[in-house]
UniProtKB/TrEMBL annotation:
CDD domains tied to this protein: APP_MetAP
Name this protein carries in UniProt: M24 family metallopeptidase
Domain Peptidase M24: 4-219
Domain of life: Bacteria
Length: 228
């Protein structure tokens, strides 16, 4: 199986999640349904601590935690709510890695252009802006550290904070999770030296109880990063 095929499993699972999320749904059930869907679509396992779907809702969306410590909470989704799903499918030791923050208003999943809650809408718009900035800023000479400083400066100037528990913005896609290198301070390796890498800024407005995450895998094409 190709990396694009495994990533497609994750993308299809997020689209499936949007059709089933509803008020009153328990996060444990949502995680279970997402993991079952990935297996049904061809995943044979989950690469990140054997957890296929990290699911957060409401004020949990600001939580940044290692898979080692993650526990899905026994809470239900509200009529107006914010839900982040982060997926880690694997097939034949090939990874997918994909996350989205989904908004419910009046009991219905809404497209980001139609979100009436201004804070939620601006959070998702900022995520889109950061991913666009990645594709504009990075070239074959850019290091992980340079990207780290550049994006974190934009996050702060726009009035947001980076919530990641390690302060980083993504990692390389490898065969063993312990071999990952990160978009972090001190990593002077060129990004183009890895075949695939994630970009997954986890951001919030200072003092807010809501966080936003958007994660894609990228690779280089004609000297610039493009989404897998």
């Amino acid at each position: 199986m190709e990396y694009s095929e495994v990533q497609q499993i994750a993308k299809k699972t997020i689209e499936y999640a949007k059709t089933i999320i509803k008020p009153g749904m328990n996060l444990l059930d949502l995680r279970d349904l997402c993991e079952r869907k990935m297996l049904e679509l061809g995943a044979d396992s989950f690469w990140y601590w054997d957890i296929g779907a990290f699911v957060f809702a409401g004020d949990e969306t600001t939580i940044s935690v290692s898979g080692k410590q993650y526990v899905t909470s026994d809470r239900t989704i509200a009529e107006n709510d914010i839900v982040t799903i982060d997926l880690s499918p694997q097939c034949e030791n090939i990874w997918g890695d994909y996350a989205r923050t989904i908004i419910l208003e009046n009991g219905v999943v809404v497209d980001k252009r139609e979100i009436s809650n201004e804070e939620w809408r601006k959070g998702l718009q900022m995520e889109d802006r950061l991913h666009h900035e990645l594709t504009e800023f990075v070239n074959t000479e850019t290091t992980f550290e340079e990207l780290y400083y550049h994006i974190n400066e934009i996050i702060l100037k726009a009035g947001f904070v980076n919530l990641d528990f390690m302060g980083n913005l993504g990692h390389s896609i490898v065969k063993n999770k312990n071999d990952r290198v990160y978009t972090e301070k001190g990593n002077t390796q060129r990004i183009s030296e890895v075949k695939y890498f994630t970009f997954e800024p986890h951001i919030s407005i200072p003092g807010s109880k809501y966080g936003y995450k958007k994660e894609n895998i990228y690779y280089f094409q004609n000297g610039k990063p493009v989404e897998l």
